[in-house]
Amino acid sequence: MKKMKNFSILLLIMGLMGFVSLVGETNLDMLPLGPSKHKFSIAKIEKDQVVAAAANKAVTMADIIKENKKTDVFIFGESHTSYECHTFQRDFIEALYKEHPKIVVGFEFFLRDDNEALDAFVQGKLTEEELLKKVGWYKKTAYNYGYTRLIMEVIEKHKLKATGLNIARTLLRKVSRKGFAALSKEEKKLFPTIGIDNPEHEYFIKSVFGIFAVQVPMWFTNVYNAQKCWDVIMAESMRKVLSQPRYKGYKGIIIAGSNHVAYKLGIPFRYKKADRKVKLTTIVPVTLPEEKEDGEDEDANPMMKMLGKSLKPAAIFSRGLGDYVFSIPKDEHEHFPVLGIRTKLQDDNLLVTYVRKESIAEKSGIKKDDIITAVDGVEIKTKEQLHVLLAVKNWGDSINITVSKKVEIKKDPVEQEAD
After folding, report:
1. How far apart are CA 313 and CA 246, in angstroms?
2. Arithmetic mean of pLDDT, 168-182
3. Which of 170, 171, 153 is nearest to 162 (CA)?
4. Which of 74, 81, 120, 341 is surrounded by the most beta carbons within 10 Å?
5. What value does the CA radius of gyration of the chain take, rounded to a whole number of Å?
6. Which residues pair with 44 in a beta bridge?
7. pLDDT higher than 60, residue 65
8. CA distances (Å), 261 to each of 76, 268, 299, in order?
9. What are the chain's domains?
10. pLDDT value at position 93?
11. Which one, of 282, 313, 247, lies nearest residue 104 by Cα?
């Protein structure tokens, strides 16, 4: 039985009022970790600010570039679905280009094997659609390419070198399931600094995973080894590109998730172990807490409520988090629409395995075990097809999703009595 769902993607704009929580929702930005001598000091950051952590002062993007002329590689942590985070990266690359046009930009979401396609795209030999298909963007991730497009537009405009930092997930998946020892001798050579221990990094990753890391230690051991491999391969990928004679004098920019960069424990640590002379600068986002409406926190101390109303929105962080931190807002909605479902391919059908509460999908009647057969009249057979068609949608657009539902034919008790 097939059923057509026609619904609109609506952007809800919430009014923000009231006092600001003085503490963010997560403690991961406030851990006393890393090599910084300021790691035991807590600082604050306000809306639209960039803070130099060591000096504990607000700076501009131009200040960062001026103060770090000898930096070899700038390493950006990011929130993958923060539009403001990606605009900051874009604007930084644009500003750095004006001072130092020789730049290599490395991406977590591109693989080493994607470099030929990336070069062709920058040279105008591939369209964006052809690039995404060639590298299998939506086979590897469900993240909307629109976030990365912001950076790629600058790269294309100035003909910069773009490089993939990652390797196929199959290798990392093998480590996460069976351990590093499961790799072949040749595979192990890809990770030259993996044997160097970093207890602070292990503590940080345990903090990320929380209770699961403690309750299932064997599982965490393998997952942590995969995390180390991930950090090593991204550091090594940029290091190998910059070591080539044709890229002598180039500055590198690494863009990866914040957990790979925070406290200089992931990629920066591995990069330094491979090249002790390299000069690295880390730039990490801090998410501002949501403002609360009047009366939302009735149990708060009246004096604290009055004080909160007089303060600007701010977050706090450990000054060891990064060389520089910049603030990003906590988004009520992602910049690009998401349905809120997970799917898997089963018997050549795209089966819905999970529907997030309060999501577009749930509000539109899509349920677990539904089979998605078409989007806007286009037959759907793979996850990649689904993501490609959804990626062109914006808030306020309409989308037609055809689903096949399993219907159990049961006799109504009233009918049974009538019979």
Report:
1. 46
2. 91
3. 153
4. 74
5. 24
6. 316
7. yes
8. 7, 7, 37
9. 42-328 (3.40.50.11550), 337-404 (2.30.42.10)
10. 98
11. 247
CA 189-77-198 angle, 5° bins:
50
Say what the pTM is.
0.84
- Over residues 205-227, the mean pLDDT reads 92
Distance CA 295, CA 291 (A): 12
Q: Over the stretch 369-380, which tens digit does the pLDDT of each residue have?
A: 889 989 888 888
Dist CA 128 CA 71 (whole Å): 31
Quote the CA–CA distance of 372 and 349 in Å, as a whole number.
8
How many C-alpha atoms does 363 have within 13 Å on its Cβ side? 10
Which tens digits make up the pLDDT trace of 284-325?
999 998 766 555 555 656 665 555 555 677 999 999 999 999
- How is residue 341 written in tokens? 């479902």
Single-letter amino acid code for the residue at 195: G
Residue type, 236: E
Structure tokens at 236: 């090594």
Q: Is the CB of residue 250 less than 8 Å from the CB of residue 71?
A: no
Burial class (CB in 10 A: 0-12, 13-18, 19+), 383: middle
